[in-house]
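Late entry, evening session. Most of the bench is empty. Finally got around to the prediction I had been postponing all week. Sequence below, unchanged from the version circulated by S.P.
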Amino acid sequence: MNAVSRRAATRSASKASLRPQPKDAEVAELGRKLLTLPRLNAWGAFLTAHKALETILTRELESACGLPLTWFDALAQLRMAPGERLTMTQLASALLFSKSGLTRLIDRMVETGLVQRLARPGDRRSLHIALTDAGEEKFRQALPIHLDHVKRHFAAYIEDGEARAVESALVRMASAVRRESGL
C-alpha cells in the first residue's frame, strides 16, 4: 500500500470510528431537533445577559449601599422565610450554593452582624440562620436600590407581552435543573 492509499485508509477508519453508533445516533438526532439555531442563539443571549446583569447589579448595589448581591440574595431569602430564618440546607438550596460556600458566606455575614446562627428547637445538631435587626435594616436600605437596578437593567428590555413567556421558560428550566442536580 502506498502513502496516499495509507492516508486515505486512515482517514476512512477515523471517520468510521467517529460515526455515531445506533444509540448515539438517536441522541445526536434528538440534539439536532432540540438545539435549533434559534435555541442556540437564545442560549448565547441568556449566558451573556446573565453574566452582564450579575456583574452590573453586584457593582451598583455594592457601590450604593456596601452590600454584595449574594449577601442581598441571602437577606432576601431570610426575609421571605417564615420567622425570617432558614436551616443551612434550606438557604443553600434557595441560593444554589454548596454547603461549604454557604458556610463561608454566612461566616462573613455573622461577622458583620447581618445574620445570626440560632439553635433549632428540639435539634441540637443543626442551626437556623436568622436575620438580625441590622440585617433587616440593611435589607430595607438595599431593596429599593436593587429594584431600581433590576428595573433599569432587566425589566426595561422585556415587553409586558414577552414577560410571561420569558418567566415560563426560565421557571421550567430552573425546576428541571433543580430536580436533576438534587437542589
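Two things to note before I forget:
The beta strands are 85-87, 115-120, 123-131.
The helical segments are 3-18, 22-34, 37-65, 69-80, 88-95, 99-111, 133-153, 160-181.
Will write this up properly tomorrow.
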